Amino acid sequence: MKICVVALGKIGLPLAVQFASKGHTVLGADVSEPTVRKVAEGVVPFPGETDLDVKLKEAVEAGLLTATTDTAAAVAQADAVVVVVPLFVDGDGIPDFAWMESATKDIARGLKPGTLVSYETTLPVGTTRNRWAPLLEEGSGLVAGRDFHLVFSPERVLTGRVFADLRKYPKLVGGVDAGSAQRGIEFYEAVLDFDDRPDLDKPNGVWDLGSAEAAELAKLAETTYRDVNIGLANQFARYADTIDVDVNLVIDACNTQPYSHIHRPGIAVGGHCIPVYPRLYLWNDPNATVVRAAREANAAMPSYAVDLLAAAVGDLTGLGVLVLGASYRGGVKETAFSGVFGTVEELKRRGAVPYVSDPMYSSEELTAHGLPPFEGQDLGAAILQADHAEYRNLTSDDLPGVKVLVDGRRTTDADKLPGIRRIVIGG
User: Fold this and answer.
1) Is 372 left (phi over 0), alpha (psi -120 to 50) or beta?
2) Whether the predicted pLDDT of 48 surpasses 90
3) Which terminus of the chain has fewer CB atoms gathered within 10 Å of its CB, N or C?
């Protein structure tokens, strides 16, 4: 097949490389000229994705992967189009479809009869059928389900381990009609391989969920579940702090029972997925009180971490506080919805003087994100925000002047921090 992948970001580029690895010809389309140029040269435009550098180089050298900024032209050559354009949500939870609408119009201009179009970007329920189908039809003069096939098939991978996750989890597909679903199943069976999963009720592989709406809801549900679960864990942790109980011991005990799967509490829930997709769900279902309460609880955790610091040291006015970690999670150079922003703002609000350091970011990069870099300024306290592996070996010598450390991820080793009071969320 000839396959067009629209948007060569942290999910789209690994997908393009995966499709090429199965012997298909892949045309990658992206609006960023620097990204297209690097991909065409076999150079990964972002760090951190396991094996992507080697696999990309192999695909480009084999002539199986090229890149362009002309989406319509790439689509015109393709048998299948996979769309992984970002969808953003504002502070009120309103989705911003602008980038996807622009890409969809470009796709429509190149769309020809018989082509499969698969949206993988997480969407509110009903978007594929009610928003993208009409836009594709208007721009192409074709009819979804009759002249071209249209499915929603959510990405279910984690950046940093995309290739492993593509094999591990069933590929969910939902079509706007039965013919589209069948074409989507055939496509993904031709481009993916799957690990044996004896724990599943049916063989691992491509699963038809019956409709685009069911597939859209499945992705929102599985991610919203995680946010709600973490919110519950954070609630338990905050209560455990009031009764001098280690909540991790409690969670460990609970999870020995097969019906308990409590997640771990922490200073923040960040990234492109967990903080965002519950808001997309709420956009569909605004009366979902459980979902809303969990989202609000998780968003409040950076302030709670500062509460713990203030309870230990008193007035924060003028105190230099080092926030360890700008990334939203360890080992990933990404600040999307990172707890660093809420932590820094809350410290400022209480009169503290926050600084940020991160082994993955230079001072210039931190400044570009609006974060004050730590460059040797006087400190009195620290808050660990990201669980970078480097922080496991932090010593007192690494934190000169720090008397109190709030470890928001339980990453540090108290034995390596003599002279520093270490506080964790949930006892």
Assistant:
1) beta
2) no
3) N
